[in-house]
User: Fold these one by one.
Assistant:
Number 1:
Amino acid sequence: MNKNKLFWGIFAVMMLGTIFLRVWNHHDWLFFKWDQGRDCALLAEAVNNGPSELPLLGPRATKVGNDYLHLGPAYYYFQYLPAGILHSTDPAAFAYFDLIISILTIPLLFVFCRLYFSPRHSLMITGLYSFSFLVVQYSRFAWNPNSVPFLMLLTFYGMLRFAQSKKLKDQIKWLSLGAFGFSMASQFHFYAFFALIGISGIFFLYHFDLFKIKKLGTNLKKVLTKNILITFGTAIAVIVLTYTPMIVSELKTDFSNSKNFLGAFTEKAREDKTFGQKLTRNFREQAKAYFLITTSFEHRSGNKSDPIPITFGLFSMALGIFLSIYFYRKEKNPTKKNFLFLIPVWISFFFLLTITTSYGLRPRYFVPVFPVPFIIIGLFLIWLDQKFPKKALFLTSLIVFTILILNLYGIKQWFTEIKLSQTKAIPTERTLILQKDDGITLGQFQRAVNYILKNSQGDHVLLWTKAEYKQPLKYLLEQARPGVDWDFIAKEKELFGQQDIFAINTTTGGYKSVKKTIKEFSKLKSTVQFGQIVVMQLKIDSSSIPKPKPTKEISSDASSKTERLFWKDVL
């Protein structure tokens, strides 16, 4: 009884630590970039005017010709829920979904691990995942890939529970749960979509013994029973139901998104690289990702082919496949055998999936395998228990403690950077999730916006900033003072007849990086710094600006673009 209390006491402490690392300074330290500003602007309409303003398609995935391929809208709907309940258009309200799901992933991972591991090993795996530096980073802002680990686990948990169930109602319940996880994950991220199709397809071929070609006809007859057809029919119905918005959109737009989906394959192909080059690069990128997820560190500066992370990562992947097969051959419990079968398929299929895009991989592409390195560690700890029973406790404690310290150190470094960046310009190196690490957070943007609001006059205010900051600043300004025309200039002729302009830039870029034509026709009045960002108020010399000649309005080529539909358009 005392051991049981101690176990759940440790679990409770772990959960409290998990929550603390995700909610501490959540609002001010929130990443709020172009994607987040775009999504907030879209969802704010639904918060203010009702759910009929929700779209039928989700975030952009990639550009295809002159159009865009879109994900499903499920992520937007989940973002809308907390914001709608609170009736808040604050960017933090739209990020609450990712925050909540990142916390719920912890108990789900524990329950998932319990299908094979002991409570002690499950707790170790879950604890290491909870405090993983990269996992914590992805929990602290709103982005459609962020909740994929939860949905991957939900899908696989439903599949494994279905496979062990004997009663029809249990089979329907668990496979429907897995189908729901699959449907949501596939709408959150295309890598999750392809990974789940492949992994679940291989799992069901294995579960129903359909790999045996000679007995395929006999085995198919066993599969095509009334109960199985009802179960899979219900699961398919769950997927169709949750895909209803996309289906409606496709019917209304002549299947435009489906055409873009097919077109994306040719758009993304890199014909300048051979298959061998892509395969070699994929080994490198996969290994580095496993090392980063596990330890919080990338390659050493200036050494993208650093042998330390590559060796560790490749060893980790190979170890996971080897130990899964090793324990599978000894295992008698069908549920545990299914679990062990799933792990190498998860590792291997995702590796195969990323070969063709290996030269464009970023940390976000690996969200479908975030739990995998820690499950591999769990398998290794079991092996240590069996091979070195007398030293296992010491070795296990050393491994777990080392990994935990490495990640907590990484988190501490990152938090220190964010804290300092709120008030001063500093180099930022620990934000590894975004393509451009500028150290700018919502808190800094908000303070810059408050300054502009305080010092701006009239119903038309002119601004300039870099493209990546335009959308978040525009959103914050319009939400704070919707009656003002916040106009971000693109050409010098737009300065004509104006008095002042606010230029917003990084502190390191400052005035010297402001657009040349703006500096040519203006004088700097004031400069105020807000950490990594600076706001400059400039006086425009209108007399020196040539009067713009009237130009003919050029109509944009909208024929190749598909307009996004909203529920109000079809209801």
Number 2:
Amino acid sequence: MNIVVVGHVDHGKSTIIGRLLAETKSLPEGKLEQVKLNCERNSKPFEYAFLLDALKDEQAQGITIDSARVFFHTDKRNYIIIDAPGHIEFLKNMISGAARAEAAFLVIDAAEGVQENSRRHGYMLAMLGIKQVAILVNKMDLVDYQEAIFLNIRKEYEDFLAQIDIHAKNFIPVSGREGDNLAETSEKMPWYQGQTALKVLDSFEKEKPALDKPFRMPVQDVYKFTAKGDNRRIVAGTVDSGKISVGDEVVFYPSGKKSHVKSIEGFACSPQDRTSAGYAMGFTLEEQIYITRGEIAAKTSEAQPENTSHLLVSLFWLGKKPLSKKKNYFLKLGTAKVTARLEEVHRVINASDLSSSDQQEKIQRHEVAECTLKLNQTIAFDKAEELAATSRFVIIDEYEICGGGIIRKGLKDKQSIIRDQVFLRNYKWEKSIISRENRSEKYNQRPTLILITGQKNVGKKSLAKSLESRLFADGKLVYFLGIGNVVYGIDADLKKNKEETQAKRQEHLRRLSEVAHILLDAGMILIVTAVELSQDDLSMIKISIDSEQIETVWVGDNVTTNLNYDIQVPSHDDSREVVEKLKEMLQERGIIFRP
């Protein structure tokens, strides 16, 4: 069972854990004597905390910097106890430790009373969904074991916990240094008739594997094997909840592609008929479909995850710089990693006193907020109250985890209708017996949509046709789709309406994408030109087409939109030099192969 121990700095968390290790004989043989001898040699008073604080700088400063994992046992079961730092500067490490916990001890110094981080840590436990909590009022020896002081602290903190919907299982007066009420009942506090900390620990209920919840497995990767005629493609990941059996129909979100489980595979073991929550595993599919890391596998017969690029979230921010609307961040949920931007701050909450403000435009360090995040692409998730594992996320800024939180609900975005249509298309798609890999091998190329964009009159069409001609001469299966072919063909009904609207533009892009999807499914390289595509336009196209199948080219020196293009090329009357440059790019990306 995973237990986290949290609380304000210097309130004695490490001392309590060290004492419990000694009292239950969970230490390696001779470890206690070794630490005592080291203290004696260095003329340093012995501290039970030294059993944990192994890092030199931790012992020098007297504070816990990282989350120490301690293996510990009682007569009932084994534990992993996480000693989380209490100093406000190390709050991030406390959260990373608490996120793995099933229950918590929260430590409060009897002499200092309830402090800012006592409340902040309580709020974080509530936010992470940890409901099994016991409060240890420590250092009772420093206040002469007075019952009144204990009762005042209990009343103050109980009132706080009630506001954040946490009910503490017990309040226990203890002394980590003297061992009172940790493993044995203390005679120095006859007024306390409750259980010891160890008894309370053993009374916590072990979190059961989420077998009865809907099946969820974030896709970690797809492994391909070729040795000795092995042609398996194994979709691998760790099952977060539910169970899966051979023959079950699975659907992947947010793409909506589906197939049946052909076999269940494990590392260094024979194939199995089923697997369930908590296991790292993989499975093969009856029909070969293209899926990517970050998608979530679910069973078609069960409740489905939500899908959107707009999220209403509760988050905490720990970055040195504030979370602002003007910057892009990375959001990681499960195995998915997408670009995210703060769109709106609804409410900022002071986690220590629960006061709130709805006037802020930024989220400062150590603040908790309810806000809306806009992602650059759709992700799959569940709401926090339904499935915690697929609702928790972290935010990365400049290669550091600077925040995290839980998804409250998905919000409708301007792509919702198109996404629903694409999902239905993928779900109903009649698959050919010829796989995408078979076509790539036959045609010696990878199906790709090449979007050539830029301002008017920069030679986009001539470049596209020249590239088509060059690839065709090399024996590639390639096609140039002029925008007029679409506008006056499948878009003829839209053309009748002269008024240019955002809805009309979206529908135009949707139809273009559907044509492209069919041609890519046939294994072709498709070249399309369009005037001044934006990042929103590209996001719309990516709903219908896997982003790995799209390459964007901006023609001309003047970039007039926010498009994140793959390559920029100059405008030339003679496009042979540019064509060779684009061909080289396609070779480098593995779309066509070097001779």
Number 3:
Amino acid sequence: MAPPADNARKVDRRGGYVSPVACLILVATILRLYGLRWGLPDSTHLFSYHPDEYHSLRGLFSLAQGSLNPHFFNYGSLYLYVVAAAAVISHGSLLLGPVPSALTFEGLPEALSLWTLDARIVSVLAALLTILAVYWLSRQVLGNSAALIGCAFLATMPLHVLHSHYGTVDVTQALFVTLCLLFSVRIIQRCNWQDCVWAGIMAGLAASTKYNGAVVIVAAFAAIFLSRSAGGWPSLARLCGEHRTAVATRMLLVLLIVASAAAAFLLTSPYTVLAWHEAKRDIFFEIQHMRAGEPLAVLAEPSGLLFHLKNLLSPGVGLVLILAIMGAVLAVVQRRRELYPLIGFAVLWMMLISVAKVRYTRYEMSLLPVLAVLAAVPVTVLVKKRRLWRGLGYSLVIVALGINLLWSGQICLALATEDPRVGALSIVLNESPPDSKIGLIQQPWFDIPPVDYCNGGKVIRSLPLWREYHRSRRELVITGWDAAALNNSNLHTVVLSEFTFRDGVRAGDPQIVGFMTQLLANYERRGCTVGLPLWAVPWDVGLDWLYPWPEIQVYVHQ
């Protein structure tokens, strides 16, 4: 009876980790649901205050018109289809009838609000699954205690918490990247061809969410060559025969991964191929956009690597970044080959986003699960040593989690309070008479108070479908950065957002600086919203940190 008792104790020890994981998932859920309704469309603005959430609904608009072609290929189609499925399940009645209510003039605004919330809920679910995947991945390599630490790191990461409130592709892509890395680790450990298939599928799904996710397939390739010799693949004996060489077997596995990835991509983004004449336009636009970038942003922040490191360190993941770098070094020194695919992917991904001329912190999302796992490595080393070192290890975990919770808590509280655009709109309406003119740099978009109900920006507002929703509160004049237009348009009020002027001022752009000089000479500032509501952030952060908290300045003619 002794062996069964030993086995029972082992099972009990493993089961003892279920409650802590459940508690971490509960904390993560609260952090991601609190403030989830931030900036949703309402009676004052047609689109949400996140500029990209509208695109996540493209699949739904096509489905409402009886087509599965999303007619939008800047990203893959998987996330669009998942959002569409969620909306059908939760609000299917909007798509019923000869003319779906979602396509009527009265019903479309309500549909936009409900569908945007559905897209955000998909992101929350993807975030929670990613945290579980990090636990699973960490446990495979480092053990149960380290898995809890990695799980806690990701659960509280401010950047992950913030973007889990958005109905966009980045959090979901990070899920599939993490799962691909998990199966890559299993390839090294188990020498199982089924893991190769699953790694390929997850790489294909990552690419189907957002094309650059295809990069993670390199981790699966590396895992094949880091695994034991071909003779150690017993499950392949029937497929390949014992006469196969190690190189031939590994090449077969590489092809298996590629085939699995291609199948997963094509099944979930079929119109990228079926409607290639449409897809190539959007794909080539994205490639050109990444190459050309946004000139003022590049001038303001010349180093892409420094941009991402700063945003990761504060307030993205805090001390976890330093622990992760230490963990990567330790893994190499200790020759922990199971971690090599994670380290290789992290380096490759960081290079990819750093050389791109378009700079947003959301590009870092797929790094966060890897950082959470690697950050647990040095802590694990410390807690296995004597009492003093063990105390240092636990102290590092407590401090790292404390910093993350400080920022994440502030994020959630700020998302749940009144949006700064509401206060800015009150200032605009109180300062400007009904028959006055309001000057804007560009067409009403997410970054300014909703002076027009249709706040979709230049491109969306120009489409026939949305023109009927134009409803200006005052006469609007679009001046651009033309100082002469500012002087000659007889404007009473001018509204500016830091999304339009910050990079130009930092880079010293002469046109923007000249416009601001003329503005300050003839107008008096009557109101200004605050901006990023986080303590202990020592530098300017990426602009996509500021979607919920733009600094808005209101000027009135003297």
